[in-house]
Write a sequence for this structure.
C-alpha cells in the first residue's frame, strides 16, 4: 500500500478493486458487495487519493471482460497450466478446480493492458502474471500489429514477499483459514498483540535475519517496512534483546502505524454512499481510458464497429 500511495506522485495511477477475480472460487453475493466497499475504504484510508489516482471497481468497466476474452483466444493451454495458483489448486482439487482459476491470469492481463500500463506494482509472487501479460501483448502485437505497451513488474526491493506469521514457509494471505497467520489493516491493538506474540520464531535467541532464521527474517522485514528502518539497523538495535523484547517493540510500531489507518477506515465505512460516489467517478475515468484501448484492439482483431452507445459514467 505504501508503494501504491507513493506512485501517485510520479505516475498516472489506476487502482482496480478486482471483484471479478474474487468469484473464481465460491463466494457469497452479499459478502462480495461488502468486500468491494471494504477494499475501497482500505485503499483510501492508506492514502490513495481519488484526485491523483483512478480508483474503481473492475466489473464497472466492461472493457475488462471483453479484452479478457479476446486475449483468451490467443492464450495457450500450456502457459496457463504453468501458472502457480492453478498448479497448486489443481494438485489438490483435480478436475473439480474451477475454470476461473485456470483463466483468471488472462483477465489480469486485460486489467493491465487496457491502460497502456508501463509499470505494474506487484509482490514477488505476481511476477509470473506480468510475464504472461507481456507474452500475450507481444503475441497480439506480432500477429495483428503494434497495439499494446509491454509492461514491466515494479517489485519493491524489500518486502516483496511477506510470509505468514504462523508459518514462515507460506505466503501471508487473508484468504487462508488461519486467523493467526496474517495482520489485517483494521486489526485492533489487542489482535495485533495476540498475533505478533503468537508468531513463530526460530531456535536460539539472536534477533537477526538469515537463511537459517526464516521466521525472524520475516518479522524483521515487517518491522523494517513499518518503521522505514533498514534491517541491519534493527539487528544492531536488538542485538542484546531476546525475542520477547523484540516482539513487544514490533507490536508497538505496528499498532502505532495502523491506528490512523483503522480510524480513517471506519470513518469511510460509515458513509458508504460517498464510497459509491467515488467509485462511480473512478469508473467513469477508467472507462474513458479503457474505451480508447479497446477501440484499437477491436479494429486490429477485425470486429465490426459497434453503433450501440455503452452506458459509461460521465
Amino acid at each position: 500500500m505504501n508503494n501504491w500511495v507513493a506512485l501517485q506522485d510520479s505516475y498516472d495511477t489506476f487502482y482496480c478493486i478486482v471483484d471479478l477475480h474474487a468469484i473464481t472460487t465460491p463466494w457469497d453475493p452479499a459478502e462480495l458487495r461488502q468486500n468491494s466497499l471494504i477494499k475501497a475504504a482500505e485503499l483510501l484510508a492508506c492514502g490513495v487519493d481519488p484526485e491523483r489516482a483512478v480508483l474503481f471497481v473492475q466489473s464497472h468497466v466492461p472493457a475488462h471482460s471483453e479484452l479478457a476474452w479476446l486475449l483468451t483466444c490467443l492464450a495457450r493451454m500450456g502457459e496457463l497450466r504453468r501458472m502457480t495458483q492453478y498448479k497448486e489448486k489443481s494438485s489438490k482439487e483435480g478436475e473439480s478446480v474451477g475454470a476461473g482459476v485456470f483463466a483468471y491470469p488472462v483477465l489480469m492481463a486485460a486489467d493491465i493492458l487496457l491502460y497502456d500500463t508501463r509499470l505494474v506494482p506487484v509482490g514477488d509472487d505476481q511476477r509470473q502474471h506480468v510475464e504472461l501479460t507481456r507474452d500475450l501483448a507481444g503475441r497480439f502485437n506480432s500477429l495483428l500489429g503494434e497495439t499494446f505497451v509491454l509492461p514491466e513488474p515494479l517489485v519493491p526491493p524489500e518486502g516483496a514477499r511477506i510470509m505468514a506469521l504462523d508459518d514462515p514457509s507460506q505466503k501471508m494471505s487473508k484468504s487462508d483459514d488461519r486467523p493467526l497467520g496474517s495482520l489485517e489493516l483494521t486489526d485492533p491493538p489487542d489482535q495485533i498483540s495476540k498475533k505478533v506474540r503468537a508468531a513463530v520464531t526460530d531456535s536460539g535467541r539472536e534477533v537477526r535475519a538469515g537463511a537459517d532464521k526464516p521466521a525472524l527474517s520475516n518479522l524483521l522485514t515487517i518491522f523494517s517496512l513499518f518503521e522505514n528502518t533498514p534491517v541491519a539497523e534493527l539487528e544492531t538495535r536488538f542485538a542484546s534483546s531476546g525475542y520477547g523484547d523484540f516482539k513487544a517493540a514490533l507490536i508497538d510500531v505496528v499498532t502505532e502505524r495502523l491506528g490512523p489507518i483503522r480510524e480513517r477506515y471506519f470513518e469511510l465505512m460509515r458513509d458508504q454512499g460517498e464510497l459509491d460516489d467515488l467509485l462511480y467517478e473512478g469508473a467513469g475515468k477508467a472507462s474513458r481510458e479503457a474505451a480508447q484501448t479497446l477501440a484499437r484492439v477491436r479494429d486490429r482483431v477485425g470486429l465490426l464497429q459497434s453503433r450501440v452507445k455503452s452506458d459509461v459514467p460521465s
User: Anything to note?
Assistant: The first helix runs from residue 2 to 7. Residues 192 and 251 are 7 Å apart (CA to CA). DSSP finds twelve helices and six strands in the chain. Strands lie at 13-17, 53-57, 119-121, 152-154, 163-164, 167-171.
